[in-house]
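Hi F.,

I've been meaning to write this up properly since the lab meeting, where we talked about keeping a consistent format for the predictions we share between groups. The idea is simple: the sequence comes first, exactly as it goes in, then the structure tokens exactly as they come out, then a line or two of notes. No screenshots and no reformatting. I'm using this chain as the first example so we have something concrete to point to.
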Amino acid sequence: MRNILSFFTLILLSFSTFVSAQVVSSGGGTGDWNDPNSWIPAAVPTTASGTITILNGHSITVSDTRSADQITVSSGGSLTISSSGTFTVAAGSGDDLTINAGGILNIQSSGIIIIQNAVVPPPPRIALIRVAGTLNNAGTITNASSSTLIFESGSVYDHQYTSTAGTIPTASWDSNSTCQITGYTSNGSAPSGLGQSFGNFTWATASLANFIDLNGALTSVAGNLTFQDIPFFYIYLTSISNYNLNIGGNLVIDNCFMGLNSTATANIAIG
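Output, unedited:
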């Protein structure tokens, strides 16, 4: 009888541990990550919290320095790293930050996401961000690479820098993902990070008030390359010699001034 009771006690303890390892956002509106009332149970999540889920219709903001892993932003939910926030995606087990289709990750100007590169304890492991929804970026993503940041089919990366160029993070881009430039106003420089193999690529900067030369950096677009809503200033693809651009889908030019080259010969392969 004692052994049977001990067995059932072990099951209950294991069940209790499993339940307490699930943390979800609470309430229907907005909340700060560091507010216990933003979560169920009412405690600020850390790397020791287990699975963390931001629910549909809920918006959580990081406004200071935080670290966690096993985070899922559900469809209709959002996670925002504010201009005063630094968020470390810790290298735990499995995917460390998942943005589901319909979910949103916002990185505001001066906001920082650090993809942790864990060396101790062994074995070494690098955190992973998987995006099926939308990543709006006007801040900094540290340690991004094709193995740590993955954009899945249907996902969107929105480059929202305005007066500065910013960097498109190095990532793995599904052929049906989209990288789009939307924020530029007074900036006159191309973003860093154009030398990747993108899915779809869209440039739509209606408030642009400067000429921009991409300097031949954009060379591979598996889907459609679109330039739209740039009514007053030219976007030049290149000013270097022997520039080659491969487009797997269509080249779309809609309501904009766009030049293939400013001083050099450009070769564009479409289809």
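Notes:
The two ends are 74 Å apart (CA to CA).
Residues 2-20 form the longest helix (19 residues).

If this format works for you, I'll send the rest the same way.

G.
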